[in-house]
Amino acid sequence: MIDLRQAWLVGPVEIPTRLVLAPMAGVSVQAFRRQGRRFGAGLVCSEMVSCAGIEHRNERTLGYLRVADDEHPLAIQLFGSDPDSMAEAARMVEAAGADLVDLNFGCPVRKVTKTGAGATLLDDPDRAARIVSAIAGAVDIPVSVKLRRGLRNGSRDCLRVGPLLVDAGASSLTLHPRSAQQMYTGAADHALTAELVSLVDVPVVASGDIDSRARAQAVLARTGAAAVMVGRAAQGNPWVLEEIVGGDRREPSREEVVAELVLFVRETVRELGERRASSFLKKFYGWYLGRGRFPRPFKQELVVLDSTEEVERRLIAAAPGALELIERLESEIPSGDEVTLELPISIYGGG
Ligand SMILES: Cc1cc2nc3c(=O)[nH]c(=O)nc-3n(C[C@H](O)[C@H](O)[C@H](O)COP(=O)(O)O)c2cc1C
Known about the structure:
Layout: E1 8-10, E2 13-15, E3 19-21, H1 30-38, E4 44-50, H2 52-55, E5 61-68, E6 74-79, H3 83-95, E7 100-105, H4 110-113, H5 125-138, E8 143-150, H6 157-168, E9 172-179, H7 190-199, E10 204-207, H8 213-223, E11 227-230, H9 239-245, H10 254-272, H11 274-280, H12 282-289, H13 296-303, H14 308-318, H15 322-332, E12 338-346
Parallel strand pairs: 3-11, 4-6, 6-7, 7-8, 8-9, 9-10, 10-11
Antiparallel strand pairs: 1-2, 5-12
The structure holds flavin mononucleotide (FMN).
């Protein structure tokens, strides 16, 4: 058994567990990141923020990123294609208190790739290396890069590009071994992760299809990766993080599910405002209440409600015992200082 409660380092930054919560556009809001830390993630990552915002501040955006005290260690992810504006954005990320600046070289969404950012950089290793080197020269915090295997199915470009990025100054790499063309279909091919580990002397994080302790153990043993990253499995299910770092596999009670969801709703309303939060949150109702936890019509009732206050009322009516838990959790979670990063969260996300 590999112990995931071991600390590891990215440059000088100590990451307390070998579990990283994935950056997910439209998901990784502050409530998600803070919850991830509480349930055992050693490192959390913001969804990608756009460097284009530096030049034209009119990009359609979900808002600005807020960073709270209890998120650290935190990576803030940038996407872009111009080394100079990315370096400027990286300085802002550092000033906002991020522990790592993470670069998105994996996003397969056309709106991003057509600007030369995201996964397209795997086809342009010179530019990719120039970006890393500009950023490593601009900030003191370590630079990490998140890659896909390549653009097209079967590509092994990550094995060529990854070492170049390390030479250019990357302190760690995360590999999601699917091609951009695959999007999320097929399986993540962690044989490539093992190859990448053998080619570089910085920590590699394995991302893709890790949804249980058994799977995390198997991927770590097979690849020699420093850590596993968990994305979709943690949507509405922070309990899986607890299990993966070494706890028991257990189904949360209805009260626990409602308490976590209510906290999530409250915090997201604080972050995004009621109007944006109420539509943003709808997908989370299905994620939390599904998995056989509540009858399906209950979720359908919630998604048609206009106000999050009404959602909260119905949730608590369905599990009144949750109130006590919510009070306890709110008293335990520090309210802490916050910093706002003046770069837009892109609505075009993905990776
Ligand atoms: C909805 C969604 C949004 C994502 N957004 C990002 C992103 O902004 N940046 C990024 O590097 N990866 C992004 N990803 C990719 C994930 O970080 C992760 O690499 C991928 O989902 C595979 O891991 P999983 O099988 O654990 O979900 C996204 C994935 C999903 C499902």
